[in-house]
């Protein structure tokens, strides 16, 4: 099981291409299967906020979130919106989502599992970027969270749990924040800096560079959409695609929000949903933060990337097929202008770019990393939700370890796909 397997990796996003690099390192042959361009605008990796936040260990659902569901349904432009037309289809996922964060103990258990997955992620990404010849795209210079008051921070369960799992930070009062961020609106009076975290200066370019590194190292790329997995008993023999079969003796399902139908094809009906996300980017901005930051009131990340100032965040539950609601991107733009008053209100539309994509999310906020019930020749690696880019480095290592039959470097029981089956 440990040598010379031909591995078909379905999906050439961040998880897929890093899995390819690590599988090649283990001595396997690799074929990547994806209809799109690695790092292209169609990919969730492309639109990522760019944070390498090794402290993002808190799942989306927390105790009491069920009380907010009516508001989510009534406000199509809120931080989390649910389209009425999609509610019947999303309801089973939403119930699991609410139950996963029903108690503080459940959220704490998730935080410890995610900390194992994310710890040292900026360092892992830096090493990968150096291998791929783009070290400048990954920086480990900390990230800042800003709050309207100290009370907003003190009352946040997430920060209490981060402390429990070993995350450290530097606290800033209003004067210290002004010194660091003179252009930030004065309504923010408290901040924390997580120095272990980092950022990516262009997520799309980074994933594209990693894909090129994988190809230069011996991987092949098949431009096709995978439609299923072909088994002979409990042995995998091929990945089925729209253009024919790709023969292989192992496969990795890393197709993001499109993974659900692939797992169902081998009898694993997993509760994967898309949390539709948006970003807005201002090219050549006149003002902005000196460091990457998250605003607690806007629920969005603001990050400098090489193409401009990007603001990303919020969640919309509406499925894979519904048209984008571009008003959600306008909300992000308005929050950005509010955070940084020196940004002009009449920025030409030619300098404002918007994007919409699909975060692949499991209801408990924990990705699926592990073997299929149908065959140990099939490894699942999807459902990373809001932590796709940052978690991809260690996920790729874990995938390679599973393919080789080695002991995974972290406990994988919390990530097991069969927790839902």
UniProtKB/TrEMBL annotation:
<dbReference type="InterPro" id="IPR006076">
    <property type="entry name" value="FAD-dep_OxRdtase"/>
</dbReference>
<dbReference type="Pfam" id="PF01266">
    <property type="entry name" value="DAO"/>
</dbReference>
<dbReference type="InterPro" id="IPR036188">
    <property type="entry name" value="FAD/NAD-bd_sf"/>
</dbReference>
<protein>
    <submittedName>
        <fullName>FAD-binding oxidoreductase</fullName>
    </submittedName>
</protein>
<dbReference type="GO" id="GO:0016491">
    <property type="term" value="F:oxidoreductase activity"/>
</dbReference>
<feature type="domain" description="FAD dependent oxidoreductase">
    <location>
        <begin position="6"/>
        <end position="402"/>
    </location>
</feature>
<keyword id="KW-0560">Oxidoreductase</keyword>
<dbReference type="GO" id="GO:0005737">
    <property type="term" value="C:cytoplasm"/>
</dbReference>
């Amino acid at each position: 099981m440990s040598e010379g397997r031909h591995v078909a990796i379905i999906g050439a996003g961040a998880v897929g291409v890093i899995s390819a690099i690590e599988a090649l390192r283990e001595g396997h042959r690799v074929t990547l299967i994806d209809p799109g361009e690695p790092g292209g605008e169609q990919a969730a990796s492309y639109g990522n906020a760019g944070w390498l936040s090794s402290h993002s260990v808190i799942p989306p659902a927390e105790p009491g979130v069920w009380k907010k569901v009516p508001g989510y349904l009534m406000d199509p432009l809120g931080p989390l919106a649910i389209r009425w037309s999609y509610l019947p289809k999303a309801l089973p996922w939403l119930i699991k989502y609410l139950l996963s964060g029903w108690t503080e103990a459940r959220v704490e258990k998730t935080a410890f599992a995610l900390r194992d997955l994310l710890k040292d992620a900026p360092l892992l990404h830096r090493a990968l970027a150096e291998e791929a010849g783009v070290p400048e795209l990954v920086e480990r210079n900390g990230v800042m969270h800003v709050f309207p008051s100290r009370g907003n921070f003190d009352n946040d369960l997430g920060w209490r749990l981060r402390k429990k799992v070993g995350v450290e930070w530097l606290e800033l009062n209003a004067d210290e924040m002004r010194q660091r961020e003179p252009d930030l609106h004065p309504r923010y009076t408290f901040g924390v800096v997580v120095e272990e975290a980092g950022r990516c200066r262009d997520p799309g370019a980074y994933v594209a560079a990693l894909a090129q590194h994988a190809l230069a190292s011996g991987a092949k790329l098949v431009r096709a959409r995978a439609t299923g997995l072909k088994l002979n008993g409990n042995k995998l023999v091929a990945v089925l695609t729209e253009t024919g079969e790709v023969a292989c003796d192992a496969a990795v399902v890393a197709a993001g929000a499109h993974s659900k139908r692939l797992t169902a094809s081998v009898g694993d009906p997993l509760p994967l949903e898309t949390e539709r996300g948006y970003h807005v980017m201002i090219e050549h901005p006149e003002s902005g933060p000196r460091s990457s930051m998250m605003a607690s009131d806007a629920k969005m990340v603001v990050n400098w990337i090489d193409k401009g100032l990007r603001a990303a965040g919020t969640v919309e539950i509406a499925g894979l097929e519904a048209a984008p609601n571009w008003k959600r991107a306008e909300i992000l733009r308005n929050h950005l202008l509010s955070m940084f008053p020196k940004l002009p209100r009449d920025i030409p539309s030619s300098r404002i770019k918007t994007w919409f994509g699909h975060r692949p999310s499991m209801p408990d906020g924990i990705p699926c990393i592990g073997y299929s019930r149908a065959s140990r020749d099939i490894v699942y690696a999807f459902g990373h939700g809001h932590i796709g880019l940052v978690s991809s480095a260690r996920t790729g290592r874990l995938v390679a370890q599973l393919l080789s039959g080695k002991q995974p470097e972290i406990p994988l029981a919390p990530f097991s796909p069969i927790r839902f089956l």
